[in-house]
Amino acid sequence: MDSVIKLVVPLLLVFFSSLLFGDITGVESSKHQQEQQYSYGSTKLFAFGDSYVDTGNIKKQEAVAPWAFPYGNTYPGTPSGRFSDGRVSTDYLATKVLKIKTPIPYQWKDHAGHERLQYGMNFAVGGTGVFKTTSSNLNMTYQINLFEQVIGDVYSPSDLSSSLALVSVAGNDYLTYVAEHGGVDLGIFIFMKQVIHQTEVNLRRIHALGVKKVAIPLLQPLGCLPLFAKASSYQKCNDIINAFVIIHNNELKKVVANLNKETKQSTFMVIDYYNAFLTVFNNKGEKPGSQKFETPYKACCGGLCGSVDKNGQKNYTLCDDPMSSFFWDGLHPTQEGWKSVYSVLNLTALSN
């Protein structure tokens, strides 16, 4: 019976999504994605979005996790507001791809000198979605408003002539929808249409403010998160959730393609987290620079990571070596996980 459900439900997802969006095309392969050419060099990075790119904007009093041990244990050796044991996506895109320093978090801008500000700014806050989510009163629109305020104050329009925006959103919107509706129902496809539309609005606005290149990651395979893989004792991903993610990603790629037709150049691009994550999960040692993870769907920090009870007893367990784990907690990759993802992504053209 379970096998029948696994077969039928993804087909229903595709059917109902086609009623709303039209024909759904297959996921582009990593190889095809790598063949896309983006001739561009950037000296400033502006990051928007959620915990995958937040490097310290969430306030200590608003969230325990990223400011509590053992977060930051690998880098910088103490909690830094990153949702990981160390570096996150923004750090790797900045230092490894663009060859610049990680942009300063917005909340620290008044304490940073000119030299630190010249690499851009990070507006991302953990928990953020395209719309307001249950874990945050903020949304992407608010972050873009903050960006607009620093133009003319901290950055001149000419400063943006060699800039790249990283826009990481949408996962929290769907997690919030599921939490509020007690699960997945067919209404989620109507909600997906709203998420995709608002994402397009956001991308257009960021570009209109003067950013020359806008990169948006595809959703990672959410069904592989420890949060969902736990049901299989961390042995496999949830195929139903991943089928939904594929539909979202196909629609997002259509938006990006249409935006590039309008600008008549490759101004907008996707970063294929979906295939990159799967490539790392399936790595048997043949991918140089990518770690071989024996149990990729199991978190290093299990339970309520970073949380302690009233007696000071830990509400979590910690693995011996974070470098051996792809996931840090139930939702977020380890530093080694992000390093491996960026080792299989082909984004070198961004630094040209």
UniProtKB/TrEMBL annotation:
<dbReference type="InterPro" id="IPR036514">
    <property type="entry name" value="SGNH_hydro_sf"/>
</dbReference>
<feature type="signal peptide">
    <location>
        <begin position="1"/>
        <end position="26"/>
    </location>
</feature>
<dbReference type="Pfam" id="PF00657">
    <property type="entry name" value="Lipase_GDSL"/>
</dbReference>
<keyword id="KW-0732">Signal</keyword>
<keyword id="KW-0378">Hydrolase</keyword>
<keyword id="KW-0442">Lipid degradation</keyword>
<protein>
    <submittedName>
        <fullName>GDSL esterase/lipase At5g03610-like</fullName>
    </submittedName>
</protein>
<comment type="similarity">
    <text>Belongs to the 'GDSL' lipolytic enzyme family.</text>
</comment>
<dbReference type="InterPro" id="IPR001087">
    <property type="entry name" value="GDSL"/>
</dbReference>
<keyword id="KW-0443">Lipid metabolism</keyword>
